[in-house]
Amino acid sequence: MKIKCITLDDEPLALKMISAFVKQTPFLELVANFDNAIDALNYFQTRKVDLLFLDIQMADLTGMELARILSEENSKNKPFIIFTTAYSEFALEGYRVNAVDYLLKPYDYKDFLTAATKVRHRLEVQSDWEENLPTENPSFIFVKVDAQIIRVEIADILYIEGYKDYVKIHLSTGASPLLSLMSLKMLEEKLSVSGFLRIHRSYIISFARVDALLKNSVRIGKKNIPIGSTYKKVYDQFVDYWVK
């Protein structure tokens, strides 16, 4: 399977050269090229890309600023980044945004291929790891809380509240809710096969923890959780879950 790539450089000759390098590399596929970071950022909003070859010094939005935006997004489809620039002083800053490599202009195809191969190896390791994940419903998930990665037993989750940039996981253990910097959408995907249901734009609940289904809400313990206006099929889903 080929690695889907984007090239981004505001210098026409540099963009032409690196695009040509991508095209002549058997394991790479050039899906788009751009001469400004704004257009590239818009492209990323709707499409999955594996690898971005990114110039740093550009008008409006620099390559480094674009890399920071992409690294901060709550998405599992963040691209690997290889910087291309004529300025060596950016190397350290590039690694701070998790760039895989740094190509200092002028570079040749050998340098390019060495950097691209690093990404290829990382993707192969990532693919092997994903293939070895258990296919049965997991009994736990890992979430990042402050500087820690914490294991959370799925059976202990009562419900989850979503805020703009983070989620609050409420547990049956009596422990304080866990705050994690991630989107509710990401957590919904993690729990999609584990008996959880999103009933509101700000809430995911555990079927097994519901004590009562009311007209416009569900009750878990002493907490009444609203059912959103766009989630009116929740009642039917509860009936299907409880009756089967």
From TrEMBL:
Any Pfam family matching the protein: LytTR
Response regulatory domain boundaries: 4-120
Protein name: Response regulator transcription factor
Any GO molecular function: DNA binding
Gene3D superfamilies named in the record: 3.40.50.2300, LytTr DNA-binding domain
SUPFAM superfamilies per the UniProt record, alphabetical: CheY-like (SSF52172)
PROSITE patterns xref list: HTH_LYTTR, RESPONSE_REGULATORY
